[in-house]
Amino acid sequence: MRLGVVALQGDFTPHARALERLGHGVRLVRRPSDLDLAEGLVLPGGESTTQLRLLASSRLAAPIVRLVRDGAPVLATCAGLILLARTVIEPEQQSLGLLDVTVARNAWGRQLDSFEATSDLRGLPLVFIRAPRIREVGAAVEVLDTFDGEPILVRQGNVVAATFHPELTESSAVADLVFERESRGAASPGGRRQAPPLLRRALV
């Protein structure tokens, strides 16, 4: 697939390298025209307040919203999850409001509190760096994995979002879940790949 990785701030380089190793074409996205041929998108980790400001100044916010709403597969990690969340708390912050979750910023701790672990359900390797926590999920959000019983990987339609950094591990499971799964899906009349129906899962 031809994938865009938003490259305004944060750890976009590890995402780009990981996706290239999987055989995807990658373009770093810094202006709206960089999205012209993108079939999917990555919103990387970093500093969400800075990224939000840079999205506005680069005029990328509106094209990204359109791409998401058009059904392109999207992976959002850490700060990317915060940017897409419906509600951001601790402290409150504006967002694009495309993912029906409430997220608390930096709730797993400061930089010195970064840690590695393994997920509860899929056994994924996890790297948490100043990670947000998902406090609430909406009815349309599927919880794909948890850590200590808390949601850390969620899906709503064509968007998959993680509180951790899958690009910093050797596992391609999360990228495959988003982009390989979508690339095998049926194309819409407009050429976009559409996500299959959600499997609603209650959060225990």
Secondary structure: elements and pairs:
Elements: E1 2-6, H1 12-21, E2 25-29, E3 40-43, H2 48-57, H3 61-69, E4 74-77, H4 79-84, E5 85-89, E6 99-104, E7 115-118, E8 125-128, E9 133-137, E10 142-147, E11 150-156, E12 159-162, H5 173-183
Parallel strand pairs: 1-2, 1-3, 3-4, 4-12, 5-6
Antiparallel strand pairs: 6-9, 7-8, 10-11, 11-12
Notes on the protein architecture:
- The chain is α/β, with parallel strands linked by helices.
- It has a single domain, classed as Class I glutamine amidotransferase (GATase) domain (Rossmann fold, 3-Layer(aba) Sandwich).
- The protein has five helices and twelve strands.
- The protein has helices spanning 12-21, 48-57, 61-69, 79-84, 173-183; strands spanning 2-6, 25-29, 40-43, 74-77, 85-89, 99-104, 115-118, 125-128, 133-137, 142-147, 150-156, 159-162.
- The protein has a seven-stranded mixed sheet with strand order 2-1-3-4-12-11-10, sandwiched between helices. It has a three-stranded mixed sheet with strand order 5-6-9. Strands 7-8 form a two-stranded antiparallel ribbon.
